[in-house]
Each structure stands twice: as structure tokens, then as C-alpha cells.
Amino acid sequence: MRTGVSYMGHHNPIHIREDLREMKALGLSDVLVAAQENDFVWFPGKLTFSAAIAHDMGLRPLAIFWGALNVFGGGRNSWHLLHHPECFQVARDGSHLAEGCYVNPVSRTRIKQMVDYIASHGYDGYFIDEPQPLHKCFCAACRAKYDEFMGGDLAVASDARQREFRARCVVDYVREIADYCKHEHRALETICCFTPMEQEVWASAAEIETLDNIGTDIYWVNETREVEEMTPIVRDLASVCHRQAKRHHEWLQCWKVKAGREDRILDQGRILIRERPDAIYVWAWKGQIGTLEACEDPGAAWARVEEVFRLARE
Predict the structure, then answer these.
(1) How much is the average pLDDT of 99-111?
(2) This model's pTM is above 0.70
């Protein structure tokens, strides 16, 4: 079972090397570099140095485009949208939304260019981070895609037809990006995490031939439900992956953990270890200290993560 952690990183290789050396000492196998769009423009050292240093340390570097298009994950400050306002989402009434639209072919082209960049710098995989249905978007690209897929006008479609269309767009996006990766950069592992709320797309996504690895993120640390309730969710995804011969990963929460809830990290981690996915990943390194998504007590939260990693090695 592989283990890894998401890493916000640094542009200075001195600090990158120090952090990755500590990851290696913890017995981790993968580092998931959370690259914001700004890292491709103003802070290229993060992407330039991280993969090479990871390989030197015996770690496998994977790239996540964190906050890309103001849609995927956190850290949303899209450089692309500043230069391509036509790629913003548009509300039903025609008003402007802050998030970008991944249905728009211009946005997809930019993501492919970013894939080219990380492939050229030695990353071993590309991670598509939480592609979710764009329920609020009625831009020209979405309306054209609806007419292509479903026939008719998205703006007047029933709620059921809209839900079907949005789910189909998620799978269509993942397929196009995964196909591109395998066509242009065959060695890249293609990985995608779908939230538990998007369980309806798991089976369809698993049918994508060029998608290698599927996971989910049951971020329940601050919730009160019994952690054992996550077991059927993990097993459902494991079954989907097994049927389609996909690798299966699971995420463990170490971000925005409230003080006093840190033991839940270990409780959930024990269940994931018991269920034996192909990989367990943690978001994020050192409790994401220094960001708006930091744990309230990053040291206490990270101590529980270290215990999970120790148990995973045993």
C-alpha cells in the first residue's frame, strides 16, 4: 500500500529538499505537489525543482492542479481566467460567476498545456482534483454541450435532465484529459478523486480506459457520524475499481481540523488501513499550516497523521 501527502511546496529548492527528506523519513512513497496556476507563471521553481528532488529522495512526484480555473479544490486564484474572461461560468440570468467552466474548450486547452509542462519536468502522474458538476453554469459552452449530448436548450431543461447532463459533463471532462495524457505522455499515471457526493459518476468514470486510478475523500474529521459508516463507501469504490481493473486510493483529512477532533484522524486512518486500498493519501502536509485551510492545532493533527503512516508501514 502506497502512502503520500499533498504538498503546497515552495519555490526555493532548499526548503523543498528539507520537506521531502522528512517525508522520506516517514516512509512515504508519493508526494502530491499542489500546483496553483500562479506556479506556472511566477513561481516556476516549485514545479521545476520538486519532481527532480523527489526522485533523488526515492519519492514518486505527482502533480495536482490545485484551484485550477477556480473550480478544482482550494487555493483558487486563476491566472487563466484573468486572461480569458469568456471561460468564466455564467448564471442562468446571465450574471457573472467567479468560477471557471471546464466545459469550455479554451479552458481544456489550458489544462492540457499545464499537463505538458509537468510531464516535461519529470512528474510521474497527473491528479484530477475533485471534478464536480457545474450546476450553476449556463454559459455558451455548456448550452452547446447540452444540445450536443441531450438535444434542446439547457436553460429550460428539467431538473432531472440537468442533473444527468452535469454528471455526463464530469465524465466527459475526465475522459478528455485522461485521453490526452495517455496520447501525449503515455508514462503519466492518470488519477482522479471524486467526492463521496459524486458517487453517481464513479461507475461511468471507471469505464474510462485511459484513467488508471480512482479515489474519494471522506473528510469526516469534524463530523459526528460514526467513522465505521465510511466502510461501505470505501468498499463500494473498491468494488468499482476492481471490476474495471483500476487502482484505488483514499484520502484522509488533515486540513481545517478543529481543535480536539484530532483523534478522528487516527480513527478514520485505522479504517482505511484495514480496508487496504492501493494508496492512502493525506491532505495536507503538516496540517496545511500557514493557509486559510490550516488545522486549528496543526501540530496535534499532524502527530495523528504520523501515527497513521506508522501503522500503514506495519
Answers:
(1) 98
(2) yes
